[in-house]
Amino acid sequence: MKLAVGICGASGAMLGLKFVSKIWARDDLEIFLVISNGAKKTLLYENNIDFESLNAPNPLLQDLYKSKIKILDDLNLGECISSGSFGIDAMAIIPCSMNTLAKIACGISDTLITRSAIVCLKERKKLLLAPREMPLDSISLNNMLNLSKEGVVIAPPIMGYYSSASSLESMEDFLIGKWLDILNIKNSIYKRWG
């Protein structure tokens, strides 16, 4: 399976990296990761992860760069995942900023993330957006509704309390497991109902 993953600059960008870290060793997935400049800034502000500094590398980044994931430049619209003929099977944008969501809803493809999402729409591939905002305004809700009508799965990071999560990590595992379920990627990351 060819999976594109976009990480945008919404608060909680670390959740996107953790999502990728749960699947980067799988042999059944070919992963193409795009981290927006906004996400890099958010990761620096919220998690002290600096993509520019080689002096204090983060262990998660070290593992990411050692993995078989293909890391693509969000400003390069000529990357492989920007073409429908490349054959991406699914895409997840975790988290999805309201700016990115609005661009996708309006068909604006000025970054690799938005272009790849629009390719998923036109090719009728699974597209999952995890918008991270609260409260939600009418414009954002209308954008989500319009995208949902086009087959996009809107899956914000909302906890299911039946999972009995007892730590931040177990809450994140619940979310990541649910997103993988939506993408039809088998996993046993979280406690299921029953």
Write down how many β-strands occur, each being a DSSP E stretch of 2 or more residues. 6
Query: Would you identify the CATH H-level superfamily?
Result: Flavin prenyltransferase-like
Biggest sheet record: 6 strands, parallel
Overall structural class, as computed from helix and strand content, comes to: alpha/beta
How many helices does DSSP assign?
7
Percent strand equals 15-25%
CATH class: Alpha Beta
| Mean pLDDT score | 93
If strands are numbered along the chain, what order do they take across the biggest sheet?
3-2-1-4-5-6
Structure overview:
With 194 residues, this protein is α/β, with parallel strands linked by helices. The protein has one domain (2-161): Rossmann fold. It is 39% helix and 15% strand. The chain is built from seven helices and six strands. The protein has a six-stranded parallel beta sheet. Helix 4 (98-106) packs across helix 6 (138-149). The longest helix has 15 residues, at 168-182. It is globular and about 40 Å long.
Characteristic terms for this protein:
194 residues, 6 strands, 7 helices, 15% strand, alpha/beta, globular
Concise overview:
This protein is 39% helix and 15% strand.
Give the helices and strands, then pairings:
Elements: E1 2-7, H1 13-21, E2 30-35, H2 37-47, H3 59-66, E3 70-72, E4 90-96, H4 98-106, H5 112-122, E5 126-131, H6 138-149, E6 153-154, H7 168-182
